[in-house]
UniProtKB/TrEMBL annotation:
InterPro entries found in the cross-reference section: DH_E1, PDH_E1_Alpha_Subunit, THDP-binding
Record flagged with keyword Ion transport: no
One Pfam family named in its UniProt record: E1_dh
Coiled coil (residue ranges): 279-306
Domain Dehydrogenase E1 component residue range list: 45-320
PANTHER family, per database record: PYRUVATE DEHYDROGENASE E1 COMPONENT SUBUNIT ALPHA (PTHR11516:SF60), PYRUVATE DEHYDROGENASE E1 COMPONENT, ALPHA SUBUNIT BACTERIAL AND ORGANELLAR (PTHR11516)
CDD domains reported for this sequence: TPP_E1_PDC_ADC_BCADC
Protein name in UniProt: Thiamine pyrophosphate-dependent dehydrogenase E1 component subunit alpha
SUPFAM superfamilies recorded: Thiamin diphosphate-binding fold (THDP-binding)
Keyword Lipid metabolism: no
Keywords assigned by UniProt, alphabetized: Coiled coil, Oxidoreductase, Thiamine pyrophosphate
Signal peptide as annotated in the record: none
Amino acid sequence: MAVPLEKLKWIYEIMVKIRYYEETMVQVYAEGKQPVFNIGAGTVPGEMHLAAGQEPAAVGICAHLRREDTVTAPHRPHHHAIAKGVDLNRMTAEIFGKETGLGKGKGGHMHLFDPNVKFSCGGIIAAGMPHAAGAALAAKMKGKDWVAVAFIGEGAANAGAFHETLNLAALWKLPLIVVIEDNSYGISVPKSASTAVETNDKRGSAYGIPGYYVKDNDPIEMYRVSGEAVERARRGEGPTIIEIETYRYLGHFQGDPEVYRDQNEVPNLKEKDPIVRLKTHLLRENAATEKEIEEMEARARMEVDRAYEFARKSAYPKPEAALEDLFATSGIDG
């Protein structure tokens, strides 16, 4: 499956947007947490899991999705959300804990959701897979050709929810696609120490469904493989597993000392940065000029800068607002 020119440009621009968003968050998250790291302090308190380096996993499949298609993400969700088209201003405000956020600041970084584009953080360790399967079942029962995509980490493929969901999805031929982001580590445990199979796409054969492995964090190959999976799901032929070899340049969480990693690992990975490689491809194939690429990069950065500015200027929710929302949803007369 060839990548249409406009899709190729979209993939590049969204990857730049994701990378710049995550790099900006590195700086913002550090505010107020020094000189001694304090996870509960600062502009954005709480844990923070960033996905710089893992952009191809999200953009390759989201390039095929419609607004009506469902995406569930784990606790490292920003790249999925951005690629699915989540409102960037409201997403950033939510991470900041502001009233203008997607959940009025109550969910934060690990609990993002945007029903307008059918995106949600479904939980950790494969917990989002049953949610995605439920969305896929609903689409099938309604006679729609919508698909559901569940993103998980490679460590989550060892969880019960992974196998239980795949069994039912295969049995009922649900339009479900499971994208496994193999970034080599389950927190600090290497894949080789936790998983009996070399690649998790092989597990598809146990359920009679196809599995694909995308090597070397390649966004173009991810687009091609994802396109086949999405078309198969829309035709009513059932689920697919895609595992992509990807790389996180940052720790499992911000503040992670990363003592489990070789000191040369991240610099070596960055030598084959997917954004740099795709830019080279665009220029070599005369798919875009230097000026067009500069315009795409500037547009992506401007949108990110505006989102952070929006979040900073937004107000924090008033304490009584939480009770008002509770009463409104519970039916209790406050």
